[in-house]
Amino acid sequence: MPKFDESMESMVDTFLFETGELLENLDEILMRAEQAEEISMIEESDIAEIFRTMHTIKGSAAMMGLQNMSTLAHAMEDMFFIIREKTYVRTDKAALFDLLYKSSDALKAELENLTDEDIPLTDFSEMIGHIHDLAAFFKGEGGNTEEQSDDVPADIFDDNEPADMLTYKLIYDDACQMPSARAIVLIRKLGAFAEVCRTIPPDMDDDNADGQIKNAGLYIKLVTDDRNAVEKMISAALNVENFELFTRDKLKAKSGGEKGGNNEISIPEGVFLPDDGDELLTYRVTYSESCAMPSARAIVLLRKLGAVSEVCRTLPPDMDADDADDAIKKNGLYIKLITDDTAAVEKMLQSGINVESAVKVDKSDAVKEAPKAGTAEKAEAQKTENKAETQAEQSPKPAAKAQKKEHKEQSMLTVKLEKLDKLLELVSEIVITESAVTSSPDLRELDTNLDRFNKSSRELKKLTDELQDVVMSLRMVPVSTAFQKMNRVVRDMNNTLKKNANLVFRGEDTEVDKSIIDMLGDPLMHIVRNAVDHGIETPEERAASGKKNPPTVTLSAGYESNEVVISCKDNGAGMDAAKIMAKAKKNGLLTKPESEYTEREIFNFVVAAGFSTNETVTQYSGRGVGMDVVKQNIEKVGGKLTVNSKLGKGSTFTIRIPLSLSIVDVLSVEIGSSSISIPALSVREAFSCTAENVITDPDGNEFVYLRDKCLPLIRLGEKLQLNTDITDPTEGICIYCREGAYEAVLLADSIVCDQQVVVKPFSPLLDGLHLKEAGLAGCSILGDGSITIILDMLSLLGGEKGEETSNG
Q: Which stretch is the leader sequence (predicted)?
């Protein structure tokens, strides 16, 4: 059975995206609303936003045919209706938000499973029951089961259930203290010669099961070849006072008795107008009581009808109106249409989801209802007058609405990320092709004047640069998208660990590539969990150590050169380098003598596989898995994870990821026969060096004196172990580079050109060579087909040896 309505298959991706966004925003609002001391103190704007969010999810899910999600959202909406209208007499804030978070998580989990046909739709009836019970508690009522003691469950009959499925309703006598236990025994016995498909209530182990059975009875849905044996066993069951075979006819009879019968149709004013032509047909559609949002179903049905008829108007006229659902539930949906194929229209109406009945009505039906208000003449006269007024009021509305739609501008457009990825790949290929054309060896052999070619190539480069900027801007989103999700992580951990940690954001407006945001989700969650679980002490421990400042985890983001830098800093206990070294030695992680390890290298052991500083395993950490995966995921996109800590003051985990994962401006230089690319943002100056400017200290370290500065000299040939004939700095080219707080002069043979290159990360097979630590960021293919190595300037200039962050 497909999960979605066939007509809505094309809307699945949009539904998943928009509903996912709504649920993420819902968590943020719930976090904000939960800060209020009492429910009565929650901001009205937050209550209204939550109410609107659930109303939207309810409608969207109903339109997609996902009745389970729609009903759960409807229950949450009803809960906040009570809060918004202040109809509660008592409250329980902790229970409310706990239930709301569980419901939000359930909807998120359902979204993830919707595209997998092997996973059935989740039954949220138990959770919905809890919400109804809490709503009844808020209103001061005894409970949801007592409130509906005389009602038949809305989902007693499923339109897709087999025709031979039988439904039995059992009533237990008052002397039975635990009818749920009796029900379990009976159901097991029935399994000998019947297939019990489901029961209401569904879970006999639930705390509310006994109350529901006592008030509403036990419903058993089963399929059997021996009905007599089934009924004989039910009648002989302990404490069963009576039972009956419950059918759809009995349900209709009950519904009819409550509403005064189904044969009388009260046709509302405005259905029939004086100028209605004979070709205009009128149909009345009623929806089942289990349909949570009939207006959404009506929209889908009207779209389908457009294929076989011309829909002229409906009553209610606007399906988006707030009172549309109530109007349809009360009077039904009236559709006025013109068609040449009445059979096709009626077949489509009858096949509509949740449609209980679809009948054709005419003016004579309306006339028959008129005498109820008095004499036929007076009623007809009044009706004609009312119709004229109705026509005068309603006629201009459709035209005004249509005009409004024509002038409505589309300001936002949702695009699949796969399309943007493809667009970025095409831009990358254009950059490579541009380089191949402008740097072609064939051009060097020409003696002709290339002024016009050079002018065109410069214009082409300008256009490709602009195209790249536009494409990258399309993919840029604020890092707050990933940060905000951590609020929920810290909130749940505080409830469990009782550490009362605060989460602070800095630079959350920093924009990064969407692919980086997608990658950051899991790493940030692991790092924040470690900060709260490992780093932050308990209130007693903080008091004992004299810490008066509140426990805080700070997430910050910003730009440094061509990288986005994201850090997670806590003011907790920090890490003991000696203990980490001892544990690393015990686990066999050392690759060189202990004395040769720097403090930074020691702290980086905490992200090694199988390493954990926790002595005991908790539900959040302590197994030595997670952080090594975090590091691997970051390195897959060319990023780097570093750790810094001060004992007693806290720890900082820093993530560095290239701002653009695709294209960078570089200065290409030659060292021997090799091509090396230096990121252009790190280059400050290129110059020729004189012998007087080269200084050597007593330890043999070389420096270049430049404008009152003594800068370290890095010979790229020696650093990268490349063969070159140029060893004298005065014969090569010196390039002054700066990255963050680090600066140096690089020595190369010559400068080739400045160009754009497409960054390609190194193969995972080379991970064991520690290329990034050696100062290599990646590689690229040049226009002539050769390969160039791109330098990691922070590592090369000595950034990895110093302190990147401080922990005050």
A: none
All structural domains of the chain with their residue ranges:
6-147, 166-255, 281-394, 417-477, 479-658, 663-801
Closest residue by Cα to residue 635 from 432, 795, 489, 756: 795
Say which CATH topology domain 6-147 has: Four Helix Bundle (Hemerythrin (Met), subunit A) (1.20.120)
Phi-psi label, residue 592: left if phi above 0, alpha if psi -120 to 50, beta otherwise? beta
Residues pairing with 413 in the sheet: none
pLDDT in tens, 457-490: 888 888 887 887 788 778 788 888 888 888 888 8
Amino acid at 601: E
What is the Cα–Cα distance from 501 to 492, expressed in whole angstroms? 11
CATH class of this structure's domain 281-394? alpha beta
Q: Name the one residue in this structure whose structure tokens are 């209802």.
A: 369
For tokens 């290599």, name the residue: 776
For the chain, what's the residue count?
808
Q: Looking at this protein, which amino acid is placed at residue 184? A: I
Q: Is the pTM of this model over 0.70?
A: no
CB distance 754 to 665 below 8 Å: yes
Those residues with Cβ within 8 angstroms of residue 126's Cβ, 6 or more apart along the chain or in another chain: 202, 203, 206
Instruction: Give rounded-to-5 percent helix, strand, coil for the chain.
Output: 45, 20, 35
The CATH number corresponding to 479-658 among 3.30.540.10, 3.90.1480.10, 3.30.565.10, 1.10.10.60 equals 3.30.565.10
Q: Provide DSSP, 48-96.
A: HHHHHHHHHHHHHHHHHT-HHHHHHHHHHHHHHHHHHTT--S---HHHH
Look-up: residue for tokens 């459709």? 398
Which H or E run contains 101?
A: helix 93-113
**Helices 67-84, 44-64: crossing angle, 10 deg rounding:** 160
**Span 49-70, pLDDT tens digits:** 888 888 888 888 887 878 888 8
pLDDT at 735: 93
User: 148 to each of 116, 152, 416, 794, how far by Cα in Å?
Assistant: 35, 8, 46, 68
Dihedral angle computed from the Cα positions of residues 426, 428, 434 and 439, in that order, rounded to the nearest 10 degrees: -150
CA distances from 730 to 683, 691, 747, 748, 750 (A): 19, 6, 10, 11, 12
The DSSP call for residue 760 is B
β pairing state of 674-679 and 787-791? parallel
For residue 315, give the nearest of 281, 349, 284 by alpha carbon. 284
Q: Which two tokens stand for residue 405?
A: 């739609």
Instruction: Confirm if 641 and 654 have CB atoms less than 8 A apart.
Output: yes
**pLDDT (mean) for 662-676:** 85
Q: Can you tell me the mean pLDDT for 733-751?
A: 89
Other CB atoms within a 10 A radius of the CB of residue 297 amount to 25
- The yes-or-no verdict on residue 433 having pLDDT over 90 is no
- Tens digit of pLDDT for each residue in 262-320? 445 567 777 788 777 778 889 999 887 767 678 888 888 888 888 889 888 898 988 88
Summarised one tens digit per residue, pLDDT across range 105-143 is 999 888 888 888 788 888 888 888 889 888 888 887 754
Q: Which CATH architecture has domain 166-255?
A: 2-Layer Sandwich (3.30)
